[in-house]
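Blinded run. Sample ID left blank on purpose so nobody reads anything into the name before looking at the predicted structure. Input follows.
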Amino acid sequence: MSSPGSDVTDIEDVLDEPAHESAAGPRPVEERPPARSWRTRADFIAVALIAVVSVTASVLTWAFSDARATTSVTGPSSWEQLPEVTALPPSLAEVWRAKSGATQSPVVVQTAVKETGEEKPSTVVTGDGGTVNGRDPLTGDVRWTYSRDLPLCVVSTAWSRAMALYSKGTNCSELTSLDGITGERRAQRNGDAEPGTALLNEGSHLITTGSKFLEVYRRDDLVRSLEFGGLRAIVNPNKQPRVGCTYGSMAVTSGKFAIIERCPDDSSDRVTVLKPNPDKSDEPKVFASVTTNGKNAQVVAVTEKLVAVAVPSPARLLIFESETGNQVGESPLDVPDADFTDPPNHVTRGFTTRTNAFWFTGSRTVSLSLETLTPQWTAEGTLGAGTTLAGRALIPVKEGLRVYEQATGAVVGTIKLNREGYTGPVQLATAGPVVLEQRGETLVALR
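Blinded prediction complete.
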């Protein structure tokens, strides 16, 4: 009951009053629908279908993922250092061999010694089919394995890692770096390299070769730092210095690489020296680019200051400044015109020491002064550029390995080898006391 003069009604009074009725009669009471139980047969079918779709999607994603098609077996984190070589062995014999069709030359991973920082060989890497193996140089035993269900284009090495380039279709597009000691996967990158490419280590960058297109990846993260040539998807046109060119041989040094170009507007071959890391990846930085006044030219070697180019008819070596293109020298060469064809994979077949640069022409090996790039001596009847062991040059010949004094070209002797009928080109490398020969698709270790 409310007090006199109050506008407030007691709750009891309200409850006691009858329901308000309109002129049309009492207002109908709205009934709330019953709660949904989600326990009908249709509900269970819907839930089952959702589960099946989810599981199927997960299975398909796994089945077609890179992880599903990859096998990685890693190895120990360290190995004993290889023994030093202070003298040439009196003989060499085969200690192991492995199929390695994806290596164009022996791949030896160099790792730094913690105490001194000096780089020393640690692992020999082979590649065949879709499998990369890291091996003990002394025994050939497999330390680690990385495998994919894709064919390998090429296996190489850079920065204490093995670099494996796989094909996923028409191009060589899947680049993976593997720790040289353990085989653990490091940086990966998708690229657009041509079939038949090589991987060249410039020091801080990795360069792919090709007849119409090449690309460069920077160290550690493999981010692309340069695209050069006929780009497949041109975002910004008119950035390349020349279009419609094809490429011959290539050589690299720290901070530069040189390539032979054959362009429709040039009457002769052109040598171009490029920076591997310009400000913009699609705007090449050209140090120098000059014509050679000849066809079928080959890059022989490039240094910080110079680039040497061989041309036929008559055979001669032209020497240019690598940053200006000015010609500073010319020397005759004892090389037949038949040798002036582009090398396999567009890579100059050579190696350098502290004093010499060695170039394999196809029938002989020419030694150049590393300071001036002028020819010093020529070894005829060779099968490859060679390597060094205990300070001497080892150059493959039909009989085995011929030993030369680097400075003079004097023959020290010949280490006899039986290559069991193989007569093709031989690429050499060393890993401690082990001499490695790439004979076609087979890697042979000698000690």
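Unblinding after everyone has recorded impressions. The first helix runs from residue 11 to 16.
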